[in-house]
Amino acid sequence: MAKNCLLISDGFIHPSVLARRELYAALDKMPAFTFRHAKSLEKIVEMNLDDVNAIVLYFHHDQLSAEALTKLESFVADGGGLLALHSASASFKQNDAYFKLLGGRFITHGRIHKFGVLFFDDADALFGKRTNFTVTDELYRHRVEPDVKIHLVTQVEDEDEPVMWTRLHKKGCVAYLALGHRSGVWRQPAVRDILQTSLDWLCAGRQTR
User: 3-state DSSP call for residue 206?
Assistant: First the structure.
């Protein structure tokens, strides 16, 4: 039976309409999941999330109400999965509790360029043995919480910069992937594989009712 996911996505420029379409196309290729859509995290306040296994965030928004954050935190704490993509970590910049839930806070980004993505020490448990790859994208840089497991990194000035991490939150789990500024990222097989594996893991913990 397909797992139910809620995709909350919005944006005309960031993320771009084309990037959002490419993400939708990538997700449509994953028959293990069904997706319903919303444009704002505020929509979950009135939603019944009992049949939702995971929520996916792909937007760049400024404001988050206390009610929406409480509903999101409760969803994850009750065993739900949360996948945040790219600019979701640059949203709600004044909301410390949101960044605590995600496991990291956006600091800055550089120019769009080609860089290598390396599977880190903690990747094996989630992804198994995978091949490193390259991507042309905008590199987000973060300050991460101490309780995260880093799975993907790139090299910035001879230092490891996290590209993907996961964390556990009570009965649920959270994953963040920094990629996704350019539409072409979502067409790369390696990135699509990361999305699918992440959703498999995120959806495993919640028994919908």
Answer: coil
